[in-house]
Design goal:
heterodimer; A: 93 residues; 2 domains; two-stranded antiparallel ribbon; B: Rossmann fold; 15% strand; globular
């Protein structure tokens, strides 16, 4: 161990390779989530269809997006519910 | 028995594919196999200069595919190493001069002539890459312990899996001192991120530059650490899969050993 790395340890700085590893893991994850716009559109259509069986929703103001933060990636589906009552009762199983 | 086709690929350029292809080919030939190395980088050939055979090119891979010559006429025999042949790329065509079906045909012929054919794949994931993997039986992915190289390797590994090929990994240009200081990804880190089997580890080695300068085979340089590692990789590739992988370590001098013992006591 040389002087520089000793200094880094004393200052409690993370090893640069750990930073690299963390960034890599995150980059690979987001690379794989880099889905085509068409796929999100299709997903949105399918989701609306399923949710509409249970709730009355505003189809125009729905947003669907993949959000990335430092910690994790999330699929965010945002839809205002117009009516909490079942539109036509729960579908038969 | 038919020979096998092995593609050496990486995604990112400049990680050592060509040197590794030439060296593994030379090592396998020294082990008694009949070996062809094929430069798949149409328009940007380099395997010929790395092997020191650039002055002897008459025909190239595009000539074979377009029927202007036989494989035997295009394959250049290495004068220093028996049973080692180079099929050079064309420098004047572009990557579209070869189609995947041409490669299937060519690899079928090469399997009859050679025990092992190594394809030196160009960087990138376009036509040249497609041509290189279409008829391959096995794949070797080369990467260096850098974020960019590992990310590209991950992409390449995914594309190889889609082709039903399970690749093996070579981590090249390891600097043991930096790994020990925590300033370079260790091979364990790289393997963990890529979750793929390891084929070998190669240390950063100045002999590589010197042997490329002169066009002499790295595996003939007895003092070269990279050369030694490549000999072992060649053995692992062909018939000795369980040969242990040596981890590049810092060469400790007497005083360093003494001082590290001393500091451990404190």
């Amino acid at each position: 161990m040389n002087f520089n790395s000793l200094l880094k340890k004393l200052m409690n700085k993370p090893a640069s390779k750990d930073v690299a590893k963390q960034r890599l893991k995150f980059a690979l994850l987001t690379d794989k989530l880099d889905v085509k716009k068409d796929m999100l559109k299709d997903l949105q259509k399918d989701l609306i269809e399923v949710i509409s069986r249970y709730f009355e929703i505003d189809k125009e103001s729905i947003t669907i997006d993949i959000q990335r933060s430092e910690e994790c990636s999330a699929l965010v589906f945002n839809s205002p519910i117009l009516s909490a009552t079942h539109k036509r009762g729960a579908p038969a199983a | 028995m038919d020979g096998k086709i092995i593609v050496v690929t990486s995604g990112k350029g400049g990680v050592g594919k060509t040197t590794i292809t030439a060296s593994i080919g030379a090592a396998l030939a020294l082990q008694g196999k009949r070996v062809a190395v094929v430069d798949m980088d149409i328009g940007l050939r380099n395997l010929d200069v790395v092997m020191g055979l650039e002055n002897r090119i008459v025909f190239n891979i595009v000539d074979i595919i377009q029927g202007r010559c036989k494989i035997k006429q295009a394959a250049i025999k290495d004068r220093r190493i028996d049973n080692l042949y180079l099929i050079p790329a064309s420098q004047s065509d572009d990557k579209n001069a070869i189609k995947p079906e041409n490669m299937v045909w060519l690899c079928g012929k090469l399997r009859k002539e050679f025990d092992i054919t190594l394809l030196d794949c160009p960087a990138g994931i376009e036509q040249g890459f497609r041509n290189s993997i279409v008829a391959a039986d096995e794949a070797v992915v080369v990467c260096t312990p850098e974020v960019s190289a590992v990310r590209d390797a991950d992409r390449i590994i995914g594309l190889l899996y889609a082709q039903s090929i399970t690749p093996k990994l070579i981590v090249n240009r390891i600097v043991p001192r930096m790994v020990e200081n925590g300033d370079m990804l260790s091979h364990e880190d790289v393997v963990e991120v890529l979750s793929i089997d390891l084929l070998g580890l190669i240390e950063m080695d100045e002999y590589v530059v010197v042997s490329t300068n002169t066009g002499t085979p790295l595996v003939l340089q007895e003092d070269s650490k990279a050369g030694k590692a490549l000999h072992r990789i060649a053995l692992r590739l062909d018939g000795h899969p369980d040969l242990p992988i040596e981890n590049p370590m810092i060469q400790k001098t007497f005083w360093k050993k003494l001082s590290s013992k001393f500091s451990r006591k404190n």
